[in-house]
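# nightly structure sweep
# worker-07 picked up a monomer target from the shared queue
# config: single-sequence mode, recycle default, output format = structure tokens
# input follows
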Amino acid sequence: MKPFLLKPVIKDYIWGGTKLRDWFGKESDTEILAESWELSCHPDGECSVASGEFSGMTLKALLKIHPEIMGTECGDADNFPILVKLIDARDNLSVQVHPDNEYARIHENDSGKTEMWYVIQADEGAELIYGFKEKISREDFKQAIEKNTLMEKLNRVQVKSGDVFFIPPHTLHAIGKGILIAEIQQSSNVTYRVYDYGRLGNDGKPRPLHIEKALEVTDTEPCTKGYGQPKLLKMPNAWQSPLCFCDYFSATKYDIFTFMQIKTADVFMHILVINGEADFYSGNYCDDPDENDRILHMTKGSSVFVPAGSDTYYIKGKCSVIITAQKIRRKK
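# output follows
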């Protein structure tokens, strides 16, 4: 099966803005576009196929018919492993934490959540929260929540375009206002809010907090690593920036000058275009390709699913992309 475009799911959470529309041309009936779920089979928001013979079908439905395009590592469509988002924080997100797999399966019947952020754009002075400044006890953590002094104990990090943050389970965190990011994560929507600035939800009531569960899963050690600028590696026709290699996925950014070859592996890949535009061709690169070999055209904000083990392809054009893949577990 050839690669195909995906149609995202738009979320209008109260802290969102309009950058997803302004920067990437995302469409929604709502004024606020907080998140665009670019790759998702999660029940809370399923992407659909936007090109090719299966256009209009949900991605999950397609994977049930053709599970082979997920590859040998994925399992089945009901347990699709990865969720990719674009997030526009016009306002601060809640201070929150995610559980690991074991806790989430017992208490939420869901997966835990390991995630990674790539900062696409940040307003001047923008910052986010990444763990604690210093180690505190669980009791001190609880009292800080009750006395409304928690924000004094959290580690604030000023951010700029190109920064990468790895957020393992148990890490208290929050995206600050004025930040546009790409998020790659386990396919999970389990979030425990600890602090939400006293805001009211769309129903006029304070949004629920999840203090007891957060106290059970939060690591109160300070975070000294896990963020910064990625390495920049020169390729023949591109710059390569490894963003994240963890137990669940890999993510790499490529700034392509002219063209880049892609060889599919035993797992599916997802391509998110964060700048520029390009054409996607089958076969090996040539200066004057046959237009019949062109599979699709990608613009800023395009999201492409590349089936596992399907062919050799190349991207021709000037663009920046983030390529995500499930981690291949080597047999011992």
